[in-house]
Design a protein that fits this description.
Layout lengths: L1 E10 L2 E11 L4 E5 L6 H8 L7 E6 L2 E2 L5 H6 L2 E4 L11 H8 L6 H14 L1 H5 L10 H13 L5 E5 L7 H16 L3 E6 L2 H7 L2 E6 L2 E7 H6 L1 H7 L4
Helix pairs in contact: 3-6
Bound molecules: adenosine-5'-triphosphate.
Amino acid sequence: MLKVHQIDVFYGNIQALKGVSLEVQEGEIVTLIGANGAGKSTLLKTLSGLLKPKKGTIQYLENSIAGKPAQSIVKAGISHVPEGRRVFANMTVEENLQLGAYLRKDLQGVKQDFERVYELFPRLLERKKQLSGTLSGGEQQMLAMGRAIMAKPKLLLLDEPSMGLAPLMVKTIFSIIEEINRAGTTILLVEQNAHMALSIANRAYVIETGSVVASGPAAELQASEQIKEAYLGGL
Ligand code: ATP
């Protein structure tokens, strides 16, 4: 579904990604783990058209999308939930969800997806008239994910959905990610919480200072001594 080949991405003179390659097959949950500043968010931003690679190719469903405008990438079926769950604070839950669907013309489908999002996140249904800025951190994460689902993505890019959340909320969010995947959406998940990410992913990539240093089935990486040492707190 997605094939990233040898991409280089720069911020001015600083090279944030160095020849990164990775693949995501339809139906998978793939996770990208790595320390702070490794380049995880940069990769997602490049996939969703916010950054342009200087070198390399990105194939998505047989189309080349490297450097394409973000809007056309959303239209093609890639939704990005950025780090820090940016919701429009002065708008209600419902209005934020509506915005997620702004490119869609299939109004009947949008209506169904509203129902689907409220089924996935009952908490959002209870609070649909509430201003988003007053939601808790976990609820804002749910809203950011819900808004992305409203774009009807084939591929969902999630940037650190567990960040700053209490353990119980992290569990809830991860089980919803699995549910979204079971219902047919492919997922590329960036996480610092390597334990949780590896426990739900099919495959994983480890990124260090802009390069992929390991990859394989999630269960294999979870069992690797080196990965345990570096990313799983030695557990
Ligand atoms: P974190 O887990 O801390 O979010 P990350 O793996 O997502 O880290 P990135 O945000 O992709 O890392 O950053 C990769 C590198 O690019 C870092 O060295 C960072 O300082 C740098 N970088 C990120 N954004 C910019 C920017 N707008 N301008 C300059 N450098 C940047």
